Amino acid sequence: MSSEIEALETQLNAMILARRHQEAFEKFYADECTMQENSEPPTRGKDANRKREEGFFAILKQFHSIELLGGAVGDGISFSEWRNEMTLEGIGRVKTEQTAVRRWKNGRVISERFYYTRNW
Hints:
By secondary structure, this protein is an alpha+beta fold. The chain has helices spanning 2-17, 21-28, 46-59; strands spanning 29-37, 43-44, 60-74, 77-88, 92-105, 108-116. The chain has a 6-stranded mixed sheet. Strand 1 (29-37) and strand 2 form a beta hairpin. Helix 1 runs antiparallel to helix 2. The chain starts with a helix and ends with a strand.
């Protein structure tokens, strides 16, 4: 199972690196997915998470860089570490480092949690 997840994780991360985030979301995330920022309450369901993602991209003015630092895959789970630099409306230029933890079921992400320190 981990080899299947490794292939899916590789495809998903390649789309993110190509800045095809929204297309990747539609392709890889389950209808019942949850997404969570640090210890905030999770957002439940694909429709609610699509709106959350659209809200982020509405304030994203420019991606200056996006870098996949590393990752790992286990049985039903994947981890990826990212470094980003972007300009956000009303905030300005920011640098972030985050780890995404994804849980997979039937070839789709059923939960994703982001761990990071906000520097803005």
